[in-house]
Design goal:
The complex is a heterodimer of chains A (about 775) and B (about 240). Chain A is of the alpha+beta class and about 775 residues long. In chain A, the strands form five sheets. In chain A, strands 8-10-7-11-9-12-13 form a seven-stranded mixed beta sheet. Chain A has a seven-stranded mixed beta sheet with strand order 23-25-22-26-24-27-28. Chain A is globular. In chain A, about 65% of the residues are buried. Chain B is α/β, with parallel strands linked by helices. Chain B has helices at about 15-25, 65-75, 85-95, 150-160, 220-235, and strands at about 5, 30-35, 45, 80-85, 100-105, 110-120, 135-140, 145-150, 165-170, 185-190, 195-200. In chain B, the strands form two sheets. Chain B has a nine-stranded mixed beta sheet with strand order 2-1-3-4-11-10-9-6-7, sandwiched between helices. A two-stranded antiparallel ribbon of chain B has the order 5-8. In chain B, β1 (about 5), α1 and β2 (about 30-35) form a beta-alpha-beta unit.
Chain lengths: ~775, ~240
């Protein structure tokens, strides 16, 4: 076949990249080889624009067993047990086909976990959609967009739920956030965590020359061809034509694959194993060879096929789901095959490990590809793409907010701030996410100690006395205004969430969602994000164990905000020390660790009142943050704390309200709060700032009154401001300043509004307008 | 005394159920592979939750044809204790061991949450540890749990005291608001005429340890163990 510029263009291969391919091969590539290069050199598989930056992330730590570069990161959690965990994006497919796109995102990340020998025990997800409220639409066009956003959200949530529920992994937590920029670019990031004995970890290595290469799992079809390439380009109006590149998930097949793989691994006949994810057969074979310094030769005639007449090109690029590549010791293949047959799964020897460090593919007796592994992996292009200075927003937002509040005051005489709090509580970003997580089985495997709805999810590890806490966090609004600070704030919040649940932060995974890296300002924000993350991760001693970069999240020239999602893992030494965010005993004292700053910039309040997303992001001092977290963790460890809740989006007022009523199985409890002393120690007199500023490094604690002195003593040891600001009890949340009530309303009325807000927007009958 | 937990392809609460029987109530238990045809060495068999065969057709519709189901039918006829939880309940209905069917939830969504159920009868081998009218907090997690049957069957179930659990509010009132999925008469669990086969949608194995928020479901397993002890004593 003649390789024309049009063909290269279709494969997203630049002219200079093509020259490099010819150099590496010493000849022109075949059509199949061109396809192989195009997926392996795609942004999605090669990290060609991000690699030089990712190196700046800290990847060393005592707990670390496996850092970036494998299918998942692994950390030691004690007693010989390890946790394998990772997060991955499935943004592009989820926009084109929300249900299957999201479902296969879960499938992919689960395979990444069990390919390491770990049984998946928890899943989470981080989701971002365009606006879903009627009032977000101004005209017919935007009404259509809102309706489509609702359908995308409903489809994604159902897809994530159906896959995880059937597979049997609890979806224990996550986050959902809305903004205009996600209307044509929803973000779907799926996280999974599994447990494995340290000595039973498996790697994606094709070791042992002469060993057999076994294909297991579902048959190969034409679905998902060029999925990775699709995920490496921006969308235009023809995006919907790419629907055939989205794969179809089968959680039942995946469940069988899991059980069969774990059984075969225990059996000892497996040398190496890798999931066929993006770029399917291609990436699994060349990566396994590259990691072991060996080669792999496969015969495509032997590959189980779902349809007839598939070409070598199609088979090598298919992204059919629920498939794995296994290297088995020669002479012990039968053992492996028998286990898979017992589970009614295909298992076929399709090739062998060679000594020439090449990927060789034979089809119908002809060698259709013969490529040095290294050309597809280490020698893939790497770019230091141009960057340009970005503007860091420092607008003063206070006058705008004051003006809006003044308008409200005339409408809600005497209760304006109560009304503002109510509006924030029903805003989709802050409202209860029950509508979402109720559709996820979050209890299967009977380990869920803290269910969705608290700062972090907690699962026990049955085999030990420990529990694991995990949380996903991002604040894209901050990152858009100031990428470096936004990234630091996200890591800090993630660690704070972990600490509030009583856990010691251990390690981090991340999913970096950005627009096109070919735009210099995007590349700069990416680079800044890395530096911000690195800085914060060092402070908390949490190495980055891996993750995923998703570029080209833009459609018709509009990109998403920089959205780095941080997934943090923590350990609780005694399972029963897990702490939740809600008040539980009337009469308990309410304490606030930390100070409030002048941080209304980029806040939910600003966005909700004025529709603006501007201003300086909250100021974060990492040393203070660490001290606040240390105080909280030590207090929990000493058994002094009844509840702990991080103050973040929506500020102190929203956090206090959540403490009152976010428990899923307990009646709401009121609280009487007085902010006089806190205002003084913070040097802030403005009521709106005290209530709604999103200053980091603050934690609300409730504790039995007799434990208050001990907590205060701990705080002073760490040099942390710690004030008793009120008491739990009654049916109202009352917040006063200088003798006047800023907020006073029944918590049950708040709770009803907060709990039903998402359902109100999503469960109404919508016209299924064709668009 | 020996419990068996059936493993269908796609079962996913098998480990959880096994864990509760072996670790929480401390009784001997084995997994039973779906291709097995001999189950007479067991005294009680539990069909766990999950998505047998993917449940792509209709929940439980394929599993009823598993080789193991033939022997379980015989086992039930011989008076052995059989409990179906969630997908297990669906399979028992499909297999004709229990009457009725489980339709899609009223709001067409999968629902996972803690609900309250009221113990209607304590005269089954599965509920002796409870008081009649006791309210239990036990989670549900299903997309198809909306119990349905024809009027005659419903009259029979009610008339013969075969409705064992009913969805209710925290104070035990059976209301429409407390019905999560639209089940007829708020039915959460029923038994057969001989009272040795029970099916329920809530997951007692998920509410057997206080660390997980509720231990109200433990009574189901304790009742079974107690009943088996009695049965074994009688047999001896």
């Amino acid at each position: 076949m003649n390789i024309t510029p049009e063909l290269l263009d279709q494969h997203n291969i630049s002219e200079s990249e093509y020259e490099r391919i010819k150099d590496l091969l010493g000849r022109e590539p075949s059509f199949t080889e061109l396809g192989i290069f195009s997926v392996m050199w795609s942004e999605h598989c090669s990290y060609k624009s991000s690699k030089i930056h990712l190196r700046r992330l800290p990847t060393e730590g005592e707990c670390l067993v496996q850092g970036p570069g494998e299918n998942a990161g692994i950390v030691d959690i004690g007693d010989g047990w390890c946790a394998a965990f990772k997060i991955e994006s499935h943004n592009h497919p989820s926009f084109i086909e929300p249900y299957q796109g999201a479902a296969t995102g879960v499938g992919g990340i689960l395979r990444d976990i069990f390919t390491m020998g770990a049984r998946p025990v928890a899943a989470m997800n981080s989701l971002r959609f365009g606006p879903i409220r009627d009032e977000d639409a101004k005209d017919d066009e935007s009404r259509k967009v809102v309706q489509r956003n609702r359908r995308i959200m409903a489809g994604v949530v159902k897809g994530l739920g159906d896959y995880g529920n059937a597979f049997g992994v609890p979806t224990v937590g996550g986050e959902v956030w809305f903004s205009d920029c996600y209307s044509l670019n929803p973000l779907v990031n799926a996280f999974a965590l599994g447990l494995v004995r340290r000595e039973q970890i498996f790697y994606g290595k094709a070791e042992g020359i002469g060993n057999s290469v076994i294909y297991v799992g579902a048959k190969t079809g034409r679905d998902g061809i060029h999925g990775a390439t699709m995920a490496s380009a921006e969308f235009d109006e023809a995006a919907m034509e790419k629907r055939p590149t989205v794969q179809v998930g089968d959680p039942f097949a995946e469940k069988l694959l899991l059980e069969a793989c774990l059984e075969a691994m225990r059996d000892g006949a497996i040398v190496g194993i890798q999931d066929m994810g993006a770029a399917g057969l291609t990436s699994s074979s060349c990566e396994m060879g590259a990691r072991a310094g060996t080669g792999i030769e496969i015969n495509l005639d032997l590959v189980p096929q779902r349809e007839t007449g598939m070409t070598a090109y199609e088979m090598m690029l298919s992204e059919s789901q629920e498939r794995m590549l296994i290297v088995s010791e020669v002479g012990r293949e039968r053992q492996v095959l028998e286990i898979f047959q017992r589970w009614d799964l295909d298992a076929v020897i399709i090739g062998r490990v060679t000594d020439d460090q090449r990927l060789r593919v034979v089809h119908k007796g002809v060698v259709v590809a013969d490529i040095p592994n290294i050309a597809l992996t280490d020698e893939a292009p790497r770019y230091d793409r141009p960057q340009t200075a970005i503007h860091i927003n420092n607008d003063d937002v206070a006058p705008g907010i004051a003006e809006e509040l003044k308008k409200l005051e005339t409408e809600f005489v005497g209760g304006c701030l109560t009304e503002v709090l109510r509006r924030l509580l029903v805003s989709p970003n802050l409202a209860s996410k029950e509508w979402v997580y109720r559709q996820y089985d979050h209890m299967v495997r009977t380990n869920s100690v803290v269910l969705p709805g608290s700062d972090a999810a907690v699962i026990r590890v049955k085999e030990t006395r420990r529990s694991l806490a995990m949380s996903l966090d991002a604040n894209a609004r901050y990152c858009r205004l100031n990428p470096r600070e936004g990234a630091r704030l996200a890591v800090a919040e993630s660690a704070r969430n972990i600490v509030c649940s009583g856990a010691r932060p251990l390690a981090v995974t991340n999913c970096l969602n950005f627009a096109s890296p070919e735009r210099p300002e995007i590349m700069r924000s990416f680079s800044e994000t890395i530096d911000g993350m690195a800085d914060a991760c060092r402070t908390f001693g949490t190495p980055v164990t891996g993750g995923n970069v998703s570029f080209y999240n833009e459609t018709e020239g509009r990109g998403v905000y920089p959205t780095p999602v941080i997934g943090m893992l923590g350990v609780i030494e005694e399972a029963r020390d897990a702490t939740t965010q809600w008040f539980s005993e009337p009469g308990d004292s309410v304490l606030l660790l930390g100070r409030t700053g002048n941080d209304l910039g980029a806040s939910e309040l600003l966005s909700e009142l004025t529709g603006l997303e501007t201003g300086a992001v909250p100021k974060l001092d990492l040393k203070t943050e660490k001290s606040v977290q240390d105080t909280c963790l030590e207090a929990i460890g000493a058994g002094l704390v009844r509840s702990a809740h991080d103050c973040s989006d929506g500020g102190l007022a929203v956090a206090l309200a959540e403490c009152c009523f976010s428990s899923y199985r307990r009646d709401a409890l009121g609280a009487r709060i007085d902010l006089d002393a806190h205002a003084e120690v913070s040097g802030i007199g403005d009521a709106a700032t005290l209530l709604f500023a999103e200053s980091p490094s603050r934690i609300i604690i409730s504790a039995s009154p007799e434990n208050v002195p001990a907590i205060e003593e701990l705080a002073s040891k760490f040099g942390v401001a710690c004030l008793r600001i009120g008491e739990v009890g009654g049916g109202n949340l009352t917040v006063s300043l200088n003798g006047a009530n800023l907020i006073d309303a029944s918590v049950s009325s708040f709770e009803t509004a907060w709990r039903s807000a998402l359902s109100f927007h999503l469960d109404r009958p919508t016209q299924m307008a064709a668009d | 005394m020996k419990f068996g937990v059936v493993v269908f392809p796609g079962s996913n609460c098998d480990h959880d159920t096994y864990h509760v029987v072996s670790k929480v109530i401390g009784q001997p238990v084995d997994f039973i592979w779906h291709k097995e045809e001999q189950v007479d060495r067991y005294d009680a068999i539990i069909l766990p939750g999950g998505f047998s065969y993917g449940d792509y057709l209709r929940s439980g519709a394929i599993a009823r044809f598993s080789p193991v189901m033939r022997s379980i039918k015989q086992f039930a006829q011989d008076g052995g204790l059989v409990m179906g939880i969630c997908n297990g309940f669906q399979i028992l209905c499909e297999a004709g061991l229990l009457p009725g069917a489980l339709l899609r939830n009223r709001d067409l969504k999968f629902i996972c949450e803690h609900v309250n159920i009221r113990v209607e009868r304590t005269d089954t081998a599965f509920t002796t540890a409870y008081e009649s009218g006791q309210v239990l907090s036990i989670p549900i997690a299903h997309g198809e749990g909306n119990y349905f049957c024809d009027q005659r069957t419903l009259d029979e179930l009610e008339g013969e005291g075969r409705v064992i659990f009913r969805y209710c509010d925290a104070s035990g009132r059976v209301t429409d608001e407390a019905n999560p999925n639209g089940s007829l008469n708020n039915i959460a669990g029923i038994c057969n005429r001989e009272r040795n086969v029970i099916g329920l949608m809530p997951h007692p194995e998920r509410a057997a340890e206080s660390l997980l928020g509720s231990s109200d479901g433990r009574g189901v397993f304790l009742s079974m163990a107690d009943s088996l002890r009695e049965m074994i004593k009688l047999r001896a």
